[in-house]
Amino acid sequence: MKARQKRLVFVGLAIAGVGAAASMALSALQSNLSYFFSPTQVAANEHPTDAVFRVGGLVVEDTLKRQEDGLTVRFDVTDNAATVPVSYTGILPDLFGEGQGVVAKGRIGQDGMFYAEEVLAKHDESYMPPEVADTLQTAHVEGVIESTGESVKSGAAAQ
Amino acid sequence: MKINWFKYASPTAFYPLAGRLVPVLFGASLVLILFSLYWGFFETPDRLGGTNPQKEYYRIIFIHVPSAWMSMWLYLVLAAWAAIGLVFNTRLSFMMANAVAPTGAIFTFIALWTGAFWGRPSWGTYWDWDPRLTSELILFFLYIGYIALHSAIDDVRRADRASALLAIVGLVMLPVIFWSINCPDPNQCAALHQRSSLSDIESNILTAMLTMTLAFWIYSFAAAFARLRSIILTREGDSTWVRGVLEREASA
Question: Could you tell me the pTM of the whole model?
Answer without folding.
Answer: 0.86
